[in-house]
Write a structure and sequence with these properties.
five-stranded antiparallel β-sheet, alpha+beta, 16 strands
């Protein structure tokens, strides 16, 4: 899991929010299937009318350094902007493993409403060691493994606005992605302390070899 607090600065997030709210919304239930359709109660921005907005967010995702290091993204499988008004929620569910012919390795939520402006509406994820509730400030991006059972709790005041989507990683296995992340941390820390030397070259060579072995 990764929370990027400043994925969008407040000015950019506020401008994006304004453009989204000027775009028509439809019932979100029509896009869900199976059990999800029975527990989904929200509004969803019209994808065609909001295509430029979604493309802008996707470009920011694919070019963001922290997203690149954490997810090693190949492409974004699907995106939508959801709004939850008072009384709306999304009950417990798991996301589909395949969307738009893409394997979904990581899910993300980009929060586009300031958390002080609404009550409820937490992203709640069931983990091995208990329930995690996420409700950060506007402009924050949260990434997590797609296989987790999760829900959006009922909104009791104001409106919750967020962009969600799924990432297909170039490296399918999460443990392999973790190895590559840690090697990158070691590389950066070593260079900061000792500069670039033959050990750094060896580390970079082996990191590159692992990428070639694991990338799809």
């Amino acid at each position: 899991m990764l929370l990027i607090d400043n994925f969008l600065d407040r000015e950019t997030a506020a401008r994006l929010r304004k453009n989204i709210l000027e775009t028509p919304f439809n019932s979100g239930g029509a896009t869900a299937t199976g059990r999800a359709a029975k527990v989904k109660n929200n509004l969803q921005m019209d994808r065609e009318r909001g295509r430029k907005i979604l493309d802008d967010i996707a470009l920011r995702m694919m070019t963001h350094e922290q997203v690149e290091l954490y997810a090693i993204p190949k492409r974004i499988a699907a995106m939508s902007v959801n709004r939850y008004d008072v009384g709306m929620e999304y009950g417990s569910h798991t996301d589909a493993p395949i969307m738009n012919d893409c394997r979904c390795d990581l899910s993300f939520t980009l929060f586009l409403e300031d958390h002080v402006n609404y009550d409820g509406g937490e992203l709640a994820l069931e983990q091995e060691h208990g329930l995690l509730k996420v409700k950060p400030a506007i402009g924050s991006l949260f990434l997590y493994s797609t296989g987790l059972i999760h829900r959006v709790t009922p909104v009791t005041r104001g409106s919750r606005l967020a962009c969600i989507g799924w990432i297909q990683s170039r490296v399918r296995d999460e443990q392999q992605r973790a190895v590559l992340r840690e090697l990158n941390i070691v590389h950066r820390s070593y260079v900061e302390r000792h500069g670039h030397d033959e050990l750094v070259d060896m580390l970079l060579k082996n990191s590159a070899n692992l990428m070639r072995m694991w990338c799809e």
